[in-house]
Each structure stands twice: as C-alpha cells, then as structure tokens.
Amino acid sequence: MTIKLTLIYTYDGTFEGFLTSIFECYNRKDFPVEIVSRNGEQKHLFAQKMDIQTDETKAERVWKGIQQKMTEKNKQLVFYAFLSEEQGIEMKIYRFLRRLFSSNLNIETDFGDSDVLYLTQTSRKVKQEAMRMLQFVRFQHTKDGLYFCGIEPRCDVIPLVVSQFQKRFADQRWLLYDLKRNYGMLYDENKPQEVVISNKEFSSITGQVNENVLQEGEEFYQKLWKSYFTHINIQERKNLKLQRQHMPRRFWKFLPEMQQGSE
C-alpha cells in the first residue's frame, strides 16, 4: 500500500522566492498544503518537503501575470499582503492567485470570498503601517555624518517607505534600520542598498544611537526637542487618548520627545 504524503513548499522568505514557488506549483502541477519560509512554522510535520530555489526569471513571469490580471487600483495588493508577514499569508495568496488566473471575471471585490476579503484588509493595514513609519521616525546624526533611524514596524514596510525617504533626503547619507527584522536600507546620495549590521552602535530595543557615536551637539538637540514637546504639551490640556491615537505608544521609545524626562 502506497501512502501519498502531503506536500509542503519551502522557500527563502523573499517575495521573489514566494513568486518562484507559485511558478513551480503550476510548472510541476503541484497542490501544496503549505507554502512557508524555511525559517517559518510548519503545521504538517510529516509532510513531504520541496525546497524551492529563488529564480528571478520565474518570479518575474508570475509578477507580470498578476499585473495583467489585476486592475490598476490593486496591482500591488499581493505584494502589500505578503509584507504583512501574517502566519499563513502565503496560502491565502496562493488560493487567491489560483482563482485569479483561472477566472475571466474580476474577483478583486468578491468579498464573499474569505481570501479576497482577508488580503484586502491586510493590504490596507500594511499601507497604514507604512504611513505611520513616515510620520513617527526621528533620525539621529552620527559623527561620521550618517543620519540613523531605528524602527520596529509590525510589517516589513521598509520596501514601501524607502523611496519616500530617498526623495526627502536625497542630499544626505542615511540608514533606515528595521530592528525587528535586523536589516536596513543605507543611502549614500546615490541609491539605497540593503545592509545588515553585526557590530551595533545602537540599542536593538529602542534604536537610540550610543552617545559616543553621536554628532557633537546631537544630544543637546534631542534634549531641546524633549523640552519643546514638554512645554507645548501643557498638563491641563493633555489628552492621553488623543495622544495615543495620533502617536501610538509602541512608537514612543523611538521618539526623543517621548523619552523619560519629557513628561
């Protein structure tokens, strides 16, 4: 008696790797029960595993196919949803794409489909998180002239915000670093490049640069900013509910004006 094992696709965790997995599903005529990052949690412990190697050509073919089927408004839906890093997001996207490629109708607004609804809502959350990163970041100036900012977003939003920082600070050297995912984008007045820092001169918890590498006067300006915030935030008019709404508490540790001593 032959027992047919369920199949799991594993990949490197990148969007290109995921798209390559989608390509291989069609190419091999496979129907995996899971598509998961190699470092991700797998539900089916005794399933057969197929490790997919990232192929940019295959990934590009799948991406072009998605672009051709999606309306202009939702061309980035799959990418945004993927960046959420929600557990099981790969299979939700996989099921969505199987239906998208097989249907002649527009399924993007079929919210009776749980996957369509989930991806739409998740994509919206990722966009909102990216907007918060643009609003609540503070760069610190280091002695070597680099502007550093540590962030800890709920989603992997650096790919979505780096172009905005490039436009805003095109004449500066800066590093936007994701403390949670341990990678960042370094811009040197040419183009941003992905970097991973092993010898950290900053706190992996708060993202605050060590005082010994701060530009002279930077600590003074941070204290000045705290003082400014304290004075405009008059105690009698303090509305903590409104403050949390516009400046969520999880961002406070990254903002000079919200550090201890600013209240």
Can you tell me about this structure?
With 263 residues, this protein is α/β, with parallel strands linked by helices. The chain folds into two domains: 7-130, no CATH class; 136-258, no CATH class. It is 39% helix and 14% strand. It has eight helices and eight strands. The protein has helices spanning 15-27, 56-69, 77-83, 89-102, 114-135, 158-168, 218-232, 240-246; strands spanning 7-11, 34-37, 48-51, 140-141, 147-151, 173-178, 183-188, 192-195. It has a five-stranded mixed beta sheet, covered by helices on one side. A three-stranded parallel beta sheet has the order 2-1-3. Helix 5 packs parallel to helix 6. The chain is globular and about 55 Å long.
Provide a concise account of the structure shown.
With 263 residues, the protein is an alpha/beta fold.
Tally of distinct domains = 2
Topology pattern, helix = H, strand = E: EHEEHHHHEEHEEEHH
Placed side by side, the strands forming the largest sheet appear as 4-5-6-7-8
First-last Cα distance: 72 Å
Number of separate strands? 8
Helix content: 25-40%
Mean pLDDT: 80
Topology, element by element:
Blueprint: E1 7-11, H1 15-27, E2 34-37, E3 48-51, H2 56-69, H3 77-83, H4 89-102, H5 114-135, E4 140-141, E5 147-151, H6 158-168, E6 173-178, E7 183-188, E8 192-195, H7 218-232, H8 240-246
Parallel strand pairs: 1-2, 1-3, 5-6
Antiparallel strand pairs: 4-5, 6-7, 7-8
